[in-house]
């Protein structure tokens, strides 16, 4: 009788040690809304062009003339569209003019990092096409850090205001992520 009870105890210990936290395996859905300020003009731009098409372009299409231009950005993220509202993070990355015909479209590779509030220290990344003249643009979320580890989801971008080439863009974000701890 002593052997079977030790075997049952061993099996119980093995099962208990192999059981994982099922809450950590369930995806959590988070909705966030914020505004990004993309400033390309003035004395303190937050986005700067670092490459452009060679000067051998001879066409008259202004969109095609911009094809291949690459900009690097470090844009503030705020709670409201007002540039003086609370800064909750920064959007850092690269965008490139990706269309040659009839459409002002960017390829975006950005990380949205939070520096305050409930998401402080966490970030998510977006990689995708942004047809900026559309009223609403949808882009995929492909990963994240902090509480957004293993993130996936989507964001809707809508231009709130534009002056020359400076823009305020509203973001409505839906993120699926897991409660993964290291």
TrEMBL record:
A single cellular component GO annotation: apoplast
Keywords noted in UniProt: Apoplast, Secreted, Signal
Keyword Amino-acid biosynthesis applies: no
Predominant localisation class: secreted
N-terminal signal peptide: 1-24
A Pfam family recorded for this sequence: Dirigent
UniProt keyword annotation of Signal present: yes
Family (UniProt): Belongs to the plant dirigent protein family.
Subunit structure of this chain's protein: Homodimer.
Job of this protein: Dirigent proteins impart stereoselectivity on the phenoxy radical-coupling reaction, yielding optically active lignans from two molecules of coniferyl alcohol in the biosynthesis of lignans, flavonolignans, and alkaloids and thus plays a central role in plant secondary metabolism.
Protein's name in the database: Dirigent protein
Species assigned in the record: Lithocarpus litseifolius
């Amino acid at each position: 009788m002593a052997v079977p009870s030790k075997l049952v105890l061993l099996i119980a210990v093995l099962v208990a040690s192999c059981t994982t936290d099922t809450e950590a395996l369930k995806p959590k859905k988070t909705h966030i809304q914020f505004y990004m300020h993309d400033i390309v003009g003035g004395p303190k731009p937050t986005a700067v062009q670092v490459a452009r098409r060679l000067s051998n372009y001879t066409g008259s299409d202004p969109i095609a003339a911009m094809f291949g231009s690459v900009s690097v950005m470090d844009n503030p993220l705020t709670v409201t569209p007002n540039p003086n509202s609370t800064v909750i993070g920064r959007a850092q990355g690269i965008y490139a003019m990706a269309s040659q015909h009839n459409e002002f479209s960017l390829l975006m590779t950005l990380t949205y990092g939070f520096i305050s509030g409930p998401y402080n220290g966490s970030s998510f990344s977006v990689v995708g096409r942004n047809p900026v003249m559309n009223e609403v643009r949808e882009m995929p979320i492909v990963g994240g850090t902090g509480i957004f580890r293993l993130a996936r989801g989507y964001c809707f971008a809508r231009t709130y205001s534009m002056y020359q080439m400076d823009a305020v863009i509203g973001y409505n974000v839906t993120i699926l992520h897991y409660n993964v701890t290291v």
